[in-house]
Each structure stands twice: as structure tokens, then as C-alpha cells.
Write a structure and sequence with these properties.
99 residues; five-stranded mixed beta sheet; 2 helices; 5 strands; binds FE2/S2 (inorganic) cluster
Length: 99
């Protein structure tokens, strides 16, 4: 079994431990942090923007390149349902909806 990786959500300061490869939408759900996710993780609504403050996640996906996202997607702003955790990570849900 792979060692678990910490994902810390700011500004809430909540950390959850996940297996490598878990996506950030799933991590947020485990942390009890609401993320706007109209398509329920299908990569099509473009609402689940999350800022990667620190750490390594999987590269930008084709879905992210094609979706009309509600944020400017790039290396630091990702769709939570498409970014998979690869190292200890610190993130912030991009929309005020989450506060
Ligand atoms: S939940 Fe819809 S794109 Fe991520």
C-alpha cells in the first residue's frame, strides 16, 4: 500500500490524508469542504477551480484544455476533479462559494 499524502485546504486549515492519485475534488469532499461541482466530477462544468499553493499534482488534462472553465486554468489553477495529488499539497478552493 502506498503511503498516504497530506492535502491541506486553506484558509480552513483542514488537512486530509489521501492515497497518491486521488483527485482534489474527492480530497475536498473528505475534508468536508464544499466545491462547486455541477457535473459531479465529470470534467465538463468547469466550476471546480482550485488553486495549487504548494505541491505537485498531475499535469493539465485534455478536459481542462477544452472546458469553458470559470477560472483561468493553468499550472496553478486547476479543475479539482482533474488534478490528482502526487505529493504533499496545499490548496485553496478558488470560488467564494466554498467559504
Ligand atoms: S466538477 Fe465539473 S468540471 Fe470538475
Amino acid at each position: 500500500m502506498s503511503p498516504l499524502i497530506p492535502v491541506r485546504f486553506e484558509p480552513q486549515g483542514i488537512t486530509v490524508m489521501v492515497s497518491p492519485g486521488v483527485d482534489l475534488l474527492e480530497a475536498a469532499r473528505r475534508a468536508g469542504i464544499p466545491v462547486d461541482s455541477v457535473c459531479n466530477g465529470q470534467g465538463v462544468c468547469g466550476e471546480c477551480c482550485i488553486e495549487i499553493i504548494e505541491g505537485v499534482v498531475s499535469p493539465l488534462t485534455l478536459d481542462e484544455e477544452e472546458v469553458e472553465a470559470s477560472c483561468e486554468l493553468g499550472q496553478n489553477l486547476r479543475l479539482a476533479c482533474r488534478a490528482r495529488v502526487l505529493s504533499a499539497t496545499r490548496v485553496r478552493v478558488a470560488h467564494p462559494f466554498a467559504s
